[in-house]
Amino acid sequence: MKAIIVGAGRMAEAVLHDFVRFNLFEAITLADADGARAEDLARRRGGGVARAVALDAADGRAVARAVAGHGVVVSAVPYRYNLGLARAAVAAGAHFTDMGGNNDVVAAELALDGEARQAGVTLVPDMGLAPGLATVLAAALVARLDETAEVHIRVGGLPREPKPPLDYALVFSPYGLINEYAEPCLVLREGRVEIVEPLTGVEELDWPPFGRLEAFHTSGGASTLPRTWAGRVRELDYKTIRYPGHCARVKPFFDLGLASQDEITIGHARVRPRDVFAERLASALPEGDDDIVLVRCWAKGTKGGKPTTLTYELVDYADAATGLTAMMRTTGWPVAVAAQLLAEDKTARPGALPPELAFAPEAFLAALGKRGLDLKDQGA
User: Fold this and answer.
1) What is the pLDDT of residues 258-272, one digit of tens each?
2) pTM score > 0.70 for this model?
3) Residue 200 is part of which domain span?
């Protein structure tokens, strides 16, 4: 089977590395608007089976031509392109997965369920770190309990050495970061879906050997879980982990409207504040080459009639041997595992499915373990 990866950035590099390492596909196409960047990545990571093409992901006709003949389509571009790529995959009779990033886009992708079923293919959006890996962890915990009262997910990508002004380094697209900090957050309260504001609910975490950290509500990490488990789980929330004080430093920028997507006039130019904000973040913040990813997911409920708390925990570091950051590993590899399971038809059914319903958690987590992600099961 052939696969195409749309995008040639950091996360695409991790996906391609995994495809080649595990010999998952007979041929791989690497497509990016910057053809030279795609060619460079194919040369460095392609293992002789990857070819590069120039592709504008916003050009529907060009995308249709590019995905034709491939069995699996992976989106590693910003979330605004995902719906168009998913539609092109269905039309081409190909499975599809992406890294998510926006609840509205994911909802539109899942609305393709009937078309995907008719085409006999499976679409699984939101297969990055969180949502994605963290979603499957949560599903695994709920599956192990007889009844589930609470699910809590805490995830963060951090520089090993925090530096001012934000004690943060860019480990993925600045637009993705802004979206997480600006958009509404879905939670479960008393079994009902509710919306809370981002950059609220700051709590303190103790995480040896990193010491005191903080976590707060951000958008997208819980994704479809609140709606999937409404009425079944009483409490569910997702929070992002950062070094202490980060939330207080960034919140004023959002309160001032710098995440707005409404155009304004500055001089003779029309600009979107969010574009300016993203450019300044990209220019001012260091890239997270030496990073850490922290994941803690726990569920409370009953098993065998007894109160039980189950926990998964992951600490991952940048790997100098492969040149992959922790964020690349923990975001790209879940996508690669999803692509493998899609190619092997190891999904619940054809159609458009969220991660918590698409795959058997045990098989998914076992595949991640083979890739060296050291998940600690602290459950009973």
Assistant:
1) 999 999 999 999 999
2) yes
3) 133-326
